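Progress report, Aim 2. The chain analyzed during this reporting quarter is listed below.
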Amino acid sequence: MGLSFTFRRSSMIWNCVALLICCNGSVGDAADNLTSNPKSRSFTFFYGATINELAPGSKAKVWLPVASSDHDQTVELLVARTPGSTHFTTEREFGNKLIYFEAVADARGEIVVDVEYKITRRELSIATAEAASDGAPEHLKSSSMIPVDGRLLRTLVDDQTVDGDNLAGIRKLYDAVDDLMSYEKPIGKPWGRGDALWACDAHYGNCTDFHSIFIGACRDLHVPAKFEMGFSIPEKYGEGEISGYHCWAKFIQNGRWIPVDISEADKNPMLKDYYFGNLNVDRVKFSEGREFDLEPRSELGKVNFLVYPHVEVNGQVHTKFVKRFRYADLSN
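Predicted structure tokens for the chain:
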């Protein structure tokens, strides 16, 4: 493909933070300096999956999320290879782009899909966050895993008064989630479903669990808040494998969608201030929202979220597949 790569030390951002803290005395100052010159990052992203453990000759319905251009990223879809007729559709509630196809499993009981993108991701800050064009009522609703009835807010702040009309109030929720939760993914435990009440009791989980609590508490304050789901890109420039998905959240304040990434803050405490109101370039978004209908609609009803292939065989969800996600940086 003739790609040209630019390498940088993976510890560069940590060195910058440490230097700024040493000179200026606070992580907040470090975060301010890191966002004074917003960055961008261009890379190819390979979304590959081998759906396996199917009965040879069985017919499957497959939905894939599609990365698309928006305020935060520019996306060019280069290739979409599926064994069936590829249909590009749009989910109705949140506007997520999808690929839908039907295919027959081969003699090995497999269906192979490959989608390739060219992506430029832009760093976000409070000042450069996307304008919120309306009140986003779809991001105020209660759902089966994120109830909007005051319980999540009370879990985080007890009897404290929190003002949802200013950043300081929402920062209290951000800090409270980080204090409550620990980023852990123990084998055999039900983490990762984004069940906010479960996460409050368990006190651990992944990015989905962290941000479910935060989003629900924001909505308790009548502040619209939403999921964005995709993948983290390793900070080190070059190329390589990507093991799994990542998600973050946004909330509306002063007419803008302000980003947060609480699970990354929990893993990187020195960047806790940065991840309130800022997002780095080392990611790509594929979908937003939770509990929505696919297009065409599934007979099984709404999906919890969509980032991996959603596969149905004989009216049942099929979850067996091998991930083949990769990135390769392009020279800037």
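The chain is about 20% helix and 30% strand. Residues 167-180 form the longest helix (14 residues). These observations will guide the mutagenesis work planned for the next reporting period.
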